Amino acid sequence: LVLINTTGGITCNDTVRSNIIIENSQASISSQAAEKIYAGIGDPAEVNIHITLKKSDLNWFPKELILFNNSKLKRRININLDNSSNLIFCETSILGRKAMLEKIENIFFSDIWKIHLGSQLKHVESINMNGNTKNIIMNKFAFNNNTSFSTILIFGKIVEKLEDDLKKIIDEIDNIFCEISIWDNKIVIRSVSNDNYDLKKTL
């Protein structure tokens, strides 16, 4: 399935909602192009994504989210899967495109994900950036001067099948910073890079 935004981008006061229910299926979902968050005046754009999986496998692989200087975005992603489902979820964000010499100095970016397995909350992700973003990007305990970052989350019985192979693959990666964590029957992979091209190629 391909999600299409016919406006070509998102800016202040825009609202985008997606409600996806998948039952007894195997699906891959992507987007037709990178989602661009443009500068604007007004309230933050809102993107709300709700996904429900019942006895299904989902690969969530949208193209990257590009945040421009002075952009404002509030995004919420909520995923519910049952014990018979598997999820491979990948989201990538870019703080300005290096090839276009774009500099990010000020944005509002509130991004919260919640994943439930059955009735139990299994994982929460939260990024909140507001105001002077340059200091956050330069901070060695945050982005360490990297402007492209990606998170892969894996849930379900597929975790046991993939964990050994993923560890071997990540051990061989040397062109970006990439680490894997495995606990509580889930896999989390973090990647950061100063060049979106290298990040996309590695992913």
Summed up, what is this model?
The chain has 203 residues and is mainly β. It has helices spanning 133-138, 158-171, 196-202; strands at 2-3, 15-23, 26-31, 35-37, 45-54, 57-60, 65-67, 72-81, 86-95, 106-117, 120-132, 148-155, 177-183, 186-193.
Secondary structure elements and pairings:
Elements: E1 2-3, E2 15-23, E3 26-31, E4 35-37, E5 45-54, E6 57-60, E7 65-67, E8 72-81, E9 86-95, E10 106-117, E11 120-132, H1 133-138, E12 148-155, H2 158-171, E13 177-183, E14 186-193, H3 196-202
Parallel strand pairs: 1-3, 2-5, 3-6, 4-7, 5-8, 6-9, 7-9, 8-10
Antiparallel strand pairs: 9-12, 10-11, 12-14, 13-14
Describe the structure.
With 203 residues, the protein is mostly beta strands. It is built from 3 helices and 14 strands. It has helices at 133-138, 158-171, 196-202, and strands spanning 2-3, 15-23, 26-31, 35-37, 45-54, 57-60, 65-67, 72-81, 86-95, 106-117, 120-132, 148-155, 177-183, 186-193. Strands 1, 3, 4, 6, 7, 9, 12, 13 and 14 form a 9-stranded mixed β-sheet that branches. The radius of gyration is 17 Å and the shape is globular. The two termini are 20 Å apart.
Pick out its properties.
single chain; mainly beta; nine-stranded mixed β-sheet; five-stranded mixed β-sheet; 3 helices; 52% strand
- Overall morphology: globular
Q: What's the SSE pattern?
A: EEEEEEEEEEEHEHEEH
- Work out the helix count: 3
Helical residue percent band: 10-25%
Distance between the termini: 20 Å
Structural class: mainly beta
Instruction: Tell me the β content.
Output: over 45%
Query: Could you tell me the radius of gyration in angstroms?
Result: 17 Å
- Assembly classification: single chain
Which regions contain 5 or more consecutive residues with pLDDT less than 50?
Answer: none
**Largest β sheet strand count, sense and barrel closure:** 9 strands, mixed
- The number of E-state strands comes to 14
Output mean pLDDT: 94
